[in-house]
């Protein structure tokens, strides 16, 4: 697949209809079990885009998609007394450093990012026996990440960091064809003077049996938690199908 040139998109800018398959239609009713969740999001982020959101905090971001988190679709900070303990995951350390780095603050205490993810999401995932310890939770996230192997999928589809633009629908189609499910894709909106959105995050959804499923909400399910990631004034949101999409190879980009 070839990146498409910007000029094809000039008309498209004006129809900034945000894709709403995720924000959408089903507001669940009768969901009277506040702590039950139905699916897990495995979020990958593109380190270059994360760095673009907070340029002062980054040096040499990895040039592959890394893990942001494994998130139940419901609940946050479900058990404040279950403290993160890095010793519990010492056997996973080399994979954790490689696949789940703290892209920002790389020079600071690396374990803070993992602690944050555990406190906020991991403690909610533990209702599932397969995830009821820190080792199981982080280990499963790494396992799913390797299983998905997003980096090779994108390469096989010819989607590489580039200074040209992609069509969001092409990226979506390639992923859907490869995985049989539609992931949730988030972008950084164009800044002033920019024409394109920047791809930042790709989330795959899993059932409680760890089967891939669509991220769309089914009847009777709670609305997906909006895991917007905000850094300063910059925020990721569902990518638009109509804006040209930039997949940057470097933090300092063209305008
Ligand atoms: C919260 O975590 C503590 C410490 O691991 C545990 O003893 C307790 O059972 C947990 N509570 C719930 C509701 O899971
Ligand atoms: C952290 O986990 C290790 C290994 O399971 C355990 O020996 C240690 O007591 C724990 N530390 C705390 C503060 O709970
Ligand atoms: C790093 O963070 C962990 C978890 O919050 C903490 O236990 C550890 O003491 C910190 N290490 C340093 C060097 O600050
Ligand atoms: C996911 O959605 C696509 C398109 O909406 C559909 O064709 C496919 O069957 C769905 N897959 C699953 C596993 O539900």
TrEMBL record:
Keyword Glycoprotein included in the entry's annotation: yes
Protein name per its UniProtKB record: Ribonuclease T2, transcript variant X1
Protein family (similarity comment): Belongs to the RNase T2 family.
Catalytic activity: an adenylyl-uridine-RNA = a 3'-end 2',3'-cyclophospho-AMP-RNA + a 5'-end dephospho-uridine-RNA; a guanylyl-uridine-RNA = a 3'-end 2',3'-cyclophospho-GMP-RNA + a 5'-end dephospho-uridine-RNA
Major location (coarse): endoplasmic reticulum
Alphabetically ordered keywords of this record: Disulfide bond, Endonuclease, Endoplasmic reticulum, Glycoprotein, Hydrolase, Lyase, Lysosome, Nuclease, Secreted, Signal
Gene3D superfamilies xref list: Ribonuclease T2-like
Species the sequence originates in: Columba livia (Rock dove)
Active site positions, chain numbering: 68, 117, 121
Classification lineage: Eukaryota, Metazoa, Chordata, Craniata, Vertebrata
InterPro entries assigned: Ribonuclease_T2_eukaryotic, RNase_T2-like, RNase_T2-like_sf, RNase_T2_His_AS_1, RNase_T2_His_AS_2
Compartment(s) where it occurs, according to its Swiss-Prot or TrEMBL record: Endoplasmic reticulum lumen; Lysosome lumen; Secreted
GO biological process, one term: RNA catabolic process
Protein's UniProt keywords contain Signal: yes
Cited PANTHER family: RIBONUCLEASE T2
Domain of life: Eukaryota
Signal peptide start-end: 1-22
Pfam families: Ribonuclease_T2 (PF00445)
UniProt GO molecular function: hydrolase activity; ribonuclease T2 activity; RNA binding
Record's GO cellular component terms: endoplasmic reticulum lumen; extracellular region; lysosomal lumen
């Amino acid at each position: 697949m070839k990146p498409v040139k910007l000029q094809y998109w000039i008309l498209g800018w004006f129809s900034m209809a945000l894709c709403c398959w995720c924000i959408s239609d089903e507001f669940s009713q009768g969901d009277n079990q506040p702590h039950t969740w139905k699916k897990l999001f495995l979020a990958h982020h593109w380190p270059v885009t994360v760095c673009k959101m907070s340029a002062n905090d980054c040096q040499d971001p990895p040039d592959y998609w890394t893990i942001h988190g494994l998130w139940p679709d419901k609940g946050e900070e479900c058990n404040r007394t279950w403290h993160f303990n890095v010793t519990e995951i010492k056997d996973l350390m080399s994979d954790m450093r490689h696949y789940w780095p703290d892209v920002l603050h790389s020079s600071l205490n690396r374990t803070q990012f993992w602690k944050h993810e555990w406190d906020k999401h991991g403690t909610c995932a533990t209702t599932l026996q397969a995830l009821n310890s820190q080792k199981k939770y982080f280990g499963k996230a790494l396992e799913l990440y390797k299983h998905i192997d997003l980096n090779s999928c994108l390469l096989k589809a010819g989607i590489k960091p580039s200074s040209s633009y992609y069509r969001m629908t092409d990226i979506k189609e390639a992923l859907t064809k490869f995985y049989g499910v539609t992931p949730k894709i988030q972008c950084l909106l164009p800044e002033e003077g920019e024409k394109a959105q920047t791809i930042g995050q790709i989330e795959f959804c899993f059932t409680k049996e760890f089967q891939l499923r669509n991220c769309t909400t089914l009847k009777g399910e709670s609305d997906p938690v909006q895991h917007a990631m905000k850094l300063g004034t910059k925020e990721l949101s569902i990518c638009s199908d109509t804006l040209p999409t930039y997949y940057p190879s470097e933090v300092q980009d063209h305008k």
